[in-house]
Amino acid sequence: MNTLLFDIETSGIDFETLDEAQKEYLMRPAEKEATDEARAAKQAEIIQQLNLWAPTSRVIAIGMLNVDTGKGKVVYQADDFEEWTSDDGLVEFGSGTEEDVLGEFWDVVKRYQRLVTFNGRMFDCPFLMLRSAILGVRPSRNLMGNRYSKDMVDLLEQLSFYGASRKFNLDFYCRTFGIESPKAGGISGLDMNQLFAEGRHKEIAQYCLGDCRATTELYKKWRDTLSFDEPGGRE
Protein backbone atom coordinates (compact mmCIF):
# COMPACT_ATOMS: atom_id res chain seq x y z
CA MET A 1 0.00 0.00 0.00
CA ASN A 2 1.62 3.26 -1.09
CA THR A 3 1.70 5.59 1.90
CA LEU A 4 2.06 9.37 2.20
CA LEU A 5 2.75 11.23 5.42
CA PHE A 6 1.88 14.92 5.58
CA ASP A 7 2.08 17.78 8.04
CA ILE A 8 1.04 21.42 7.88
CA GLU A 9 2.27 24.68 9.35
CA THR A 10 -0.13 27.57 9.90
CA SER A 11 0.01 31.25 10.81
CA GLY A 12 -2.76 33.36 12.30
CA ILE A 13 -3.98 36.41 10.41
CA ASP A 14 -3.62 39.94 11.77
CA PHE A 15 -6.38 40.34 14.36
CA GLU A 16 -6.93 43.94 13.26
CA THR A 17 -7.99 42.80 9.78
CA LEU A 18 -11.14 41.21 11.25
CA ASP A 19 -14.33 43.24 11.39
CA GLU A 20 -15.80 44.37 14.70
CA ALA A 21 -18.38 41.58 14.89
CA GLN A 22 -15.68 38.95 14.42
CA LYS A 23 -13.42 40.57 17.02
CA GLU A 24 -16.26 40.76 19.53
CA TYR A 25 -17.17 37.12 18.95
CA LEU A 26 -13.61 35.88 19.42
CA MET A 27 -13.06 37.96 22.55
CA ARG A 28 -16.21 36.86 24.38
CA PRO A 29 -14.33 34.38 26.60
CA ALA A 30 -12.08 37.22 27.80
CA GLU A 31 -15.09 39.25 28.96
CA LYS A 32 -15.89 36.55 31.50
CA GLU A 33 -12.64 37.17 33.38
CA ALA A 34 -12.97 38.95 36.71
CA THR A 35 -10.10 41.45 36.47
CA ASP A 36 -8.57 43.70 33.82
CA GLU A 37 -5.30 41.81 34.13
CA ALA A 38 -6.99 38.46 33.58
CA ARG A 39 -8.97 39.85 30.62
CA ALA A 40 -5.81 41.18 28.99
CA ALA A 41 -4.07 37.84 29.47
CA LYS A 42 -7.02 35.98 27.97
CA GLN A 43 -7.15 38.35 24.99
CA ALA A 44 -3.45 37.77 24.32
CA GLU A 45 -4.01 34.02 24.55
CA ILE A 46 -6.87 34.16 22.03
CA ILE A 47 -4.77 36.16 19.56
CA GLN A 48 -1.91 33.67 19.98
CA GLN A 49 -4.32 30.84 19.14
CA LEU A 50 -5.64 32.33 15.89
CA ASN A 51 -3.36 29.98 13.94
CA LEU A 52 -5.34 26.99 15.25
CA TRP A 53 -8.53 27.80 13.34
CA ALA A 54 -9.01 27.84 9.58
CA PRO A 55 -11.24 30.97 9.49
CA THR A 56 -8.58 33.01 11.35
CA SER A 57 -5.43 31.53 9.88
CA ARG A 58 -3.74 30.33 6.71
CA VAL A 59 -1.69 27.36 5.58
CA ILE A 60 1.90 28.52 5.19
CA ALA A 61 3.56 25.15 4.49
CA ILE A 62 2.65 21.54 3.77
CA GLY A 63 5.21 18.76 3.90
CA MET A 64 4.58 15.45 2.14
CA LEU A 65 6.80 12.36 2.29
CA ASN A 66 6.54 8.93 0.73
CA VAL A 67 7.03 6.71 3.77
CA ASP A 68 8.86 3.95 1.90
CA THR A 69 11.20 5.99 -0.33
CA GLY A 70 11.74 9.10 1.79
CA LYS A 71 11.12 11.21 -1.29
CA GLY A 72 8.69 14.07 -1.10
CA LYS A 73 7.81 17.70 -1.46
CA VAL A 74 7.35 20.75 0.73
CA VAL A 75 5.18 23.54 -0.65
CA TYR A 76 5.08 26.83 1.19
CA GLN A 77 3.92 30.42 1.00
CA ALA A 78 6.45 33.05 -0.03
CA ASP A 79 6.38 36.45 -1.69
CA ASP A 80 8.63 35.27 -4.52
CA PHE A 81 8.55 31.99 -6.44
CA GLU A 82 11.36 29.68 -5.35
CA GLU A 83 12.37 26.11 -6.15
CA TRP A 84 15.15 24.15 -4.47
CA THR A 85 16.06 20.67 -3.27
CA SER A 86 17.08 19.26 0.10
CA ASP A 87 20.77 18.50 0.63
CA ASP A 88 20.17 14.76 0.23
CA GLY A 89 18.26 15.31 -3.02
CA LEU A 90 15.15 13.51 -1.79
CA VAL A 91 12.79 16.42 -1.19
CA GLU A 92 11.73 19.19 -3.55
CA PHE A 93 10.73 22.61 -2.21
CA GLY A 94 8.49 25.05 -4.01
CA SER A 95 6.71 28.26 -3.06
CA GLY A 96 3.57 30.04 -4.16
CA THR A 97 0.31 31.49 -2.92
CA GLU A 98 -1.82 29.71 -0.35
CA GLU A 99 -4.07 28.54 -3.18
CA ASP A 100 -1.00 27.12 -4.94
CA VAL A 101 0.07 25.32 -1.78
CA LEU A 102 -3.35 23.75 -1.27
CA GLY A 103 -3.75 22.86 -4.94
CA GLU A 104 -0.41 21.05 -4.99
CA PHE A 105 -1.34 19.13 -1.84
CA TRP A 106 -4.64 17.92 -3.27
CA ASP A 107 -2.92 16.89 -6.47
CA VAL A 108 -0.42 14.74 -4.55
CA VAL A 109 -2.69 13.06 -1.99
CA LYS A 110 -5.06 11.64 -4.59
CA ARG A 111 -2.25 9.36 -5.79
CA TYR A 112 -1.82 7.57 -2.46
CA GLN A 113 -3.86 4.83 -0.81
CA ARG A 114 -2.86 5.45 2.81
CA LEU A 115 -2.34 8.84 4.48
CA VAL A 116 -0.49 9.30 7.76
CA THR A 117 -0.58 12.26 10.15
CA PHE A 118 0.10 13.15 13.76
CA ASN A 119 -3.06 14.66 15.26
CA GLY A 120 -4.41 15.06 11.75
CA ARG A 121 -7.92 14.05 12.74
CA MET A 122 -8.21 16.99 15.14
CA PHE A 123 -6.10 19.56 13.31
CA ASP A 124 -4.46 19.08 9.90
CA CYS A 125 -7.35 17.34 8.13
CA PRO A 126 -10.28 19.58 9.09
CA PHE A 127 -8.06 22.64 8.74
CA LEU A 128 -7.11 21.71 5.16
CA MET A 129 -10.68 20.87 4.21
CA LEU A 130 -12.15 24.10 5.59
CA ARG A 131 -9.33 26.35 4.46
CA SER A 132 -9.65 24.95 0.94
CA ALA A 133 -13.39 25.64 0.97
CA ILE A 134 -12.81 29.23 2.11
CA LEU A 135 -10.41 29.81 -0.79
CA GLY A 136 -12.52 27.97 -3.36
CA VAL A 137 -10.08 25.09 -3.80
CA ARG A 138 -11.79 21.73 -4.36
CA PRO A 139 -10.35 18.87 -2.23
CA SER A 140 -9.46 15.75 -4.20
CA ARG A 141 -10.54 13.43 -1.38
CA ASN A 142 -12.37 13.51 1.95
CA LEU A 143 -9.88 13.63 4.81
CA MET A 144 -12.63 13.44 7.44
CA GLY A 145 -14.14 10.06 6.64
CA ASN A 146 -14.33 7.01 8.89
CA ARG A 147 -12.23 7.59 12.00
CA TYR A 148 -11.12 3.96 12.03
CA SER A 149 -10.29 3.63 8.33
CA LYS A 150 -7.05 1.78 7.56
CA ASP A 151 -6.42 4.33 4.81
CA MET A 152 -6.09 7.20 7.31
CA VAL A 153 -3.61 6.68 10.14
CA ASP A 154 -3.50 9.34 12.85
CA LEU A 155 -0.52 8.40 15.00
CA LEU A 156 -1.77 10.37 17.99
CA GLU A 157 -4.95 8.31 17.99
CA GLN A 158 -3.05 5.08 17.42
CA LEU A 159 -0.49 5.67 20.16
CA SER A 160 -3.19 6.65 22.64
CA PHE A 161 -5.42 3.77 21.47
CA TYR A 162 -8.22 6.18 20.57
CA GLY A 163 -8.17 7.86 23.96
CA ALA A 164 -7.73 4.76 26.14
CA SER A 165 -4.37 6.10 27.35
CA ARG A 166 -2.87 9.55 27.74
CA LYS A 167 -1.91 11.59 24.69
CA PHE A 168 1.53 13.19 24.42
CA ASN A 169 2.87 15.68 21.90
CA LEU A 170 5.13 14.75 18.99
CA ASP A 171 8.26 16.00 20.74
CA PHE A 172 7.56 13.77 23.76
CA TYR A 173 6.87 10.68 21.66
CA CYS A 174 10.01 11.25 19.58
CA ARG A 175 12.20 11.49 22.65
CA THR A 176 10.56 8.40 24.15
CA PHE A 177 11.05 6.32 20.99
CA GLY A 178 14.63 7.50 20.47
CA ILE A 179 13.86 9.69 17.46
CA GLU A 180 15.47 13.10 17.00
CA SER A 181 12.81 15.68 17.77
CA PRO A 182 12.14 18.38 15.15
CA LYS A 183 12.19 20.86 18.03
CA ALA A 184 15.81 20.03 18.84
CA GLY A 185 16.83 22.91 16.57
CA GLY A 186 15.10 25.43 18.81
CA ILE A 187 12.06 26.12 16.59
CA SER A 188 8.52 24.99 17.32
CA GLY A 189 5.05 25.54 15.92
CA LEU A 190 4.66 28.46 18.32
CA ASP A 191 7.27 30.36 16.30
CA MET A 192 5.43 30.17 12.98
CA ASN A 193 3.59 33.49 13.34
CA GLN A 194 6.82 35.39 13.97
CA LEU A 195 8.82 33.55 11.30
CA PHE A 196 6.13 34.17 8.70
CA ALA A 197 5.82 37.85 9.63
CA GLU A 198 9.60 38.21 9.26
CA GLY A 199 9.56 36.57 5.83
CA ARG A 200 11.65 33.58 6.94
CA HIS A 201 9.80 31.26 4.61
CA LYS A 202 12.62 28.81 3.95
CA GLU A 203 13.09 28.22 7.67
CA ILE A 204 9.39 27.41 7.95
CA ALA A 205 9.68 24.95 5.05
CA GLN A 206 12.73 23.27 6.57
CA TYR A 207 11.04 22.99 9.95
CA CYS A 208 8.01 21.42 8.26
CA LEU A 209 10.27 18.85 6.61
CA GLY A 210 11.83 18.08 9.99
CA ASP A 211 8.38 17.45 11.42
CA CYS A 212 7.57 15.12 8.53
CA ARG A 213 10.77 13.14 8.84
CA ALA A 214 10.41 12.69 12.59
CA THR A 215 6.78 11.65 12.20
CA THR A 216 7.75 9.20 9.46
CA GLU A 217 10.19 7.50 11.82
CA LEU A 218 7.51 7.38 14.51
CA TYR A 219 5.09 5.84 12.02
CA LYS A 220 7.60 3.11 11.17
CA LYS A 221 8.05 2.32 14.88
CA TRP A 222 4.28 2.00 15.27
CA ARG A 223 3.82 0.06 12.02
CA ASP A 224 6.50 -2.49 12.83
CA THR A 225 5.31 -3.18 16.38
CA LEU A 226 1.71 -2.14 17.00
CA SER A 227 0.02 -2.34 13.62
CA PHE A 228 -1.72 -5.64 12.96
CA ASP A 229 -2.78 -4.72 9.43
CA GLU A 230 -0.67 -4.65 6.31
CA PRO A 231 1.70 -3.12 5.40
CA GLY A 232 4.46 -3.86 7.85
CA GLY A 233 2.49 -5.33 10.71
CA ARG A 234 1.27 -8.81 11.52
CA GLU A 235 -2.22 -10.03 10.72
Task: Write up this protein.
By secondary structure, the chain is of the alpha/beta class. The chain has a single domain, classed as Nucleotidyltransferase, domain 5 (2-Layer Sandwich), CATH 3.30.420.10. The chain is 40% helix and 18% strand. It contains nine helices and seven strands. It has a seven-stranded mixed beta sheet with strand order 4-5-3-2-1-6-7, sandwiched between helices. The longest helix has 25 residues. The two termini are 15 Å apart.
Strand order of the largest sheet: 4-5-3-2-1-6-7
CATH superfamily name?
Answer: Ribonuclease H-like superfamily/Ribonuclease H
User: What value does the Rg take, in angstroms?
Assistant: 18 Å
Order of SSEs: EHHHEEEEHEHEHHHH
In the CATH scheme, the class would be Alpha Beta
* Helical coverage, percent range: 40-55%
**CATH architecture heading:** 2-Layer Sandwich
Task: Report on the biggest sheet.
Answer: 7 strands, mixed
CATH topology (fold) name: Nucleotidyltransferase, domain 5
